[in-house]
Design brief:
The complex is a heterodimer of chains A (120) and B (470).
Chain A (H helix, E strand, L loop, with lengths): L3 E8 L4 H10 L6 E7 L6 E5 L2 E5 L2 E10 L4 H12 L8 E7 L3 E2 L4 E2 L10
Antiparallel strand pairs in A: 1-5, 1-6, 2-5, 3-4, 7-8
Helix pairs in contact in A: 1-2
Chain B lengths: L5 H20 L9 H28 L5 H28 L2 E2 L3 E2 L13 E2 L3 E5 H19 L9 H24 L4 H5 L7 H19 L15 H20 L7 H29 L4 H15 L8 H26 L7 H19 L17 H30 L8 H6 L1 H6 L13 E2 L23
Antiparallel strand pairs in B: 1-2, 3-4
Classes of the chains: A alpha+beta (120), B mainly alpha (470).
Chain lengths: 120, 470
C-alpha cells in the first residue's frame, strides 16, 4: 500500500475557486470543503450597532481537505503556494498528516485503492 | 363664543359674498381644492415613496450576502438625501418659473411661496404641496434605480455625493423639460405620462455609463455572483408593482378617468411582461425562473410608464409582452456579449424598457383614450413617433454626457471604488461596519465599552483586541 497523506488547507474564502481549479489541474479530483471561522494574526474587525461596539475576532475562512497518494505532496503544496500566497496576514495555514487507512464505502475497497481514481 | 352684533354680522356677510359673486360672473375655473383628488394624490405619493425601500429589497436580494446592507442603503439613504435636496432646490429647479425652456428659476428656493393652495398651472384641484411632494417621490426613486448598475463596488461617500449632484444637474433639468410649464419637450408635444424618459431612461443610461467607468466587480466571470436571497427580491418586486399604481395612476393628478386608465394599463403591461419574460426564458434555458418572472414584471412596469395614461388596455398588453422579451434578450444575451458589468441590470431593465416604452407611446397613443394626449402612429399620426424618438435620443445623450462629466469631476475629490481587500470582505463591513446576517453565534463578537469611546475612523479593519467587557 502506498503512503497516503492528508493535506488540510485553511485560507481566504475568495481563494476557493482558483484553488479548486489549480488542484484539479494537477490531478487532485476529490476534496472536502468546509466554511469555518478562525483567528490568527488577522485580528478581526469592529462593528457598531446603535452605538454598541463589538469586536468580532473570528473571521470567515474556508477549510479544504484532500487525501493524496500518487500525486506528490510537494506538488500539491507548490500549487497551493502559487494560488494562495499574497504575503498579507490572513493567507492561512496548511497542515499535512499521515493517513493510516482508507475505505471506499460503495465498494468496500480498503487501503490506497480506496482513494485512487479508477483508470478508464 | 363672542356674540356678534347685527352690524358686524352684516358687514361680515357682505365681505364674504362680494368676492363670490364677482368670481361667479367671471372665470368659472378658479382653482378650488377637490377633496377626492387631494386624498388620491397624497395616497399615491405615499405609494411612490414605498417604491424606493421596495427597490432596496429588490436589489438587496440580488446582491451577495456580504453586500446586502450596502445595496439596501444605497436606495434607503437616497430617500433622505434627495428629499432634503428637493425641499431646498430640487423642486424649484424642476417646476419653478421657466427660464428659456431649460430650467426652473430659483423663485421657490426652500419651497418659498409654495403652499397649501392649488397652483393651477400644474394641478387646479389639489394643494400645491400635494403636487410638490408627489413629484418629490419621483425624484427620489430615480437615482436609487441607478445604484443597481454599480452595486457591490462603489465607495459610499462617492455614492452620496453622486446622488446629490446627479439629481440636481440631470434629473431636475430633464424633469423641467418634460413636465415643467415652459419646458421644451412639453412644448414640442413629446409625451411622457409618468416618467419613462425622465425616470427610466435617465437612470438606465446613467447606470450603463457608470458601470463602464467603474469597471467590473472583482472576480466577474470567474466567481459565481448569484442572488443571495430571491424571496427578498420577490417581496421587493411585489411592493414595486403595488407602488407603481401610485406612480402611474397618481400621475393623472386626480381621481378621474385618466387615473383609472393608467391603473389598468399599468397592471396589464406588468402582467404581460411577467409572462413573456418567463416564457422566453423557459424556451431558451429550459426552465421558467422566479427571478425571470419578477424581472419581467418590472420591465413591463417600466415600459408602460410613459404611456400609461395615453394608451388603451390591449396596446398595454402588447407593450408589456414586447418589454419582457426585449429586456430578457438584453440582460441575458447582449449584456454577456458586450461584456459590461451592470450588476443588477439597471440599464437592461430601465434603460431598455424605458426606451421601448417611450417609443411605444408614439405607436399606440390615442386621443380617444385621453384627449389631453395625442394620436400615435396607429391612429394616423407618425409625427408623434418622431417626437418620441427625438425625446429618447436627447435624454440618452444628456444622461450619458452629464453622468460621464459628474463622475470624472467627483473622482478628482473622492475615491470612486473600494479597494480590492474591501471588495473581497464585502461592502457591508468595509463601508458600514455591519453585517446583514449572522449577528449571533460564533461571529457575535464581544461588546466593547461604548462606541463613543472608540474612534471609528481610527479603527482599522483589524481592530484591537477586546477592551473591558461589560
Amino acid at each position: 500500500m502506498k503512503k497516503m497523506t492528508k493535506i488540510e488547507i485553511i485560507t481566504r474564502p475568495d481563494k476557493l475557486e482558483p484553488l479548486k481549479d489549480a488542484l484539479v489541474s494537477i490531478g487532485v479530483a476529490g476534496m472536502t470543503v468546509t466554511q469555518v471561522y478562525g483567528c490568527g494574526l488577522t485580528r478581526g474587525h469592529l462593528e457598531v450597532y446603535r452605538g454598541q461596539a463589538y469586536n468580532v475576532n473570528l473571521v470567515p475562512k474556508i477549510k479544504l481537505e484532500t487525501v493524496v497518494c500518487e500525486i506528490p505532496v510537494d506538488t500539491v503544496l507548490e500549487t497551493a503556494k502559487k494560488v494562495l500566497q499574497t504575503g498579507q496576514v490572513g493567507d492561512g495555514k496548511i497542515f499535512v498528516y499521515p493517513i493510516e487507512n482508507a475505505v471506499r464505502i460503495r465498494t468496500w475497497e480498503v487501503g490506497d485503492v480506496a482513494i485512487i481514481d479508477p483508470k478508464e | 363664543m363672542k356674540k356678534a352684533t347685527p352690524f358686524s354680522t352684516a358687514l361680515f356677510l357682505a365681505a364674504l359674498t362680494a368676492p363670490l359673486t364677482a368670481l361667479a360672473s367671471e372665470a368659472p375655473a378658479a382653482p378650488k381644492i377637490d377633496t377626492g383628488d387631494t386624498a388620491f394624490v397624497l395616497i399615491c405619493a405615499a405609494l411612490v415613496m414605498l417604491m424606493t425601500p421596495a427597490l432596496a429589497l429588490f436589489y438587496g436580494g440580488m446582491a451577495r450576502s456580504k453586500n446586502v446592507l450596502n445595496t439596501i442603503m444605497q436606495s434607503f439613504f437616497t430617500v433622505g438625501v434627495v428629499s432634503v435636496q428637493w425641499a431646498l432646490v430640487g423642486y424649484t429647479l424642476a417646476f419653478g418659473p421657466d427660464i428659456n425652456h431649460v430650467i426652473g428659476a430659483l423663485d421657490w428656493l426652500g419651497l418659498k411661496t409654495v403652499d397649501g393652495q392649488p397652483f393651477a398651472d400644474y394641478s387646479a384641484t389639489i394643494p400645491h404641496y400635494a403636487f410638490m411632494i408627489f413629484q418629490g417621490m419621483f425624484a427620489i426613486i430615480t437615482p436609487a434605480l441607478i445604484s443597481g448598475a454599480f452595486a457591490e463596488r462603489m465607495r459610499f461617500p462617492f455614492f452620496a455625493a453622486f446622488v446629490l449632484v446627479w439629481t440636481t444637474l440631470v434629473y431636475d433639468p430633464v424633469a423641467h423639460w418634460v413636465w415643467g410649464v415652459g419646458g421644451w419637450m412639453r412644448e414640442m408635444g413629446i409625451l411622457d405620462f409618468a416618467g419613462g424618459t425622465v425616470v427610466h431612461i435617465l437612470s438606465g443610461v446613467s447606470g450603463l455609463v457608470i458601470a463602464l467607468m467603474i469597471g467590473k466587480r472583482k472576480g466577474w466571470g470567474s466567481q459565481a455572483m448569484v442572488p443571495h436571497h430571491l424571496p427578498m427580491t420577490v417581496l421587493g418586486a411585489s411592493l414595486l408593482w403595488f407602488g407603481w399604481f401610485g406612480f402611474n395612476a397618481g400621475s393623472a393628478l386626480g381621481a378621474n378617468d385618466v387615473a383609472a386608465t393608467a391603473f389598468i394599463t399599468t397592471h396589464f403591461a406588468a402582467a404581460a411582461a411577467t409572462v413573456s419574460w418567463a416564457v422566453a426564458e423557459w424556451l431558451v434555458h429550459g426552465k421558467p425562473t422566479v427571478l425571470g418572472a419578477v424581472s419581467g414584471c418590472i420591465a413591463g412596469l417600466v415600459a408602460i410608464t410613459p404611456g400609461a395614461g395615453f394608451v388603451a388596455p390591449l396596446p398595454a398588453v402588447i407593450i408589456g409582452l414586447v418589454a419582457g422579451v426585449l429586456c430578457f434578450y438584453f440582460v441575458t444575451v447582449l449584456k454577456t456579449k458586450l461584456g459590461y458589468d451592470d450588476a443588477l441590470d439597471a440599464f437592461g431593465v430601465h434603460g431598455v424598457g424605458g426606451t421601448w416604452g417611450a417609443v411605444a407611446v408614439g405607436i399606440f397613443a390615442s386621443k380617444s383614450v385621453n384627449g389631453a394626449g395625442a394620436d400615435g402612429l396607429l391612429a394616423g399620426n407618425p409625427e408623434q413617433l418622431y417626437l418620441q424618438v427625438l425625446g429618447v435620443a436627447v435624454s440618452w445623450v444628456f444622461a450619458a454626457v452629464m453622468t460621464f462629466l459628474i463622475v470624472k469631476v467627483l473622482s478628482c475629490f473622492l475615491k470612486l471604488r473600494v479597494d480590492d481587500a474591501q471588495e473581497v470582505q464585502g461592502l457591508d463591513l468595509a463601508e458600514h461596519g455591519e453585517r446583514g446576517y449572522v449577528s449571533d453565534g460564533m461571529m457575535a463578537g464581544s461588546p466593547l465599552a461604548s462606541a463613543s469611546e472608540i474612534s471609528l475612523a481610527a479603527a482599522p479593519l483589524a481592530a484591537t483586541k477586546p477592551a473591558n467587557n461589560i
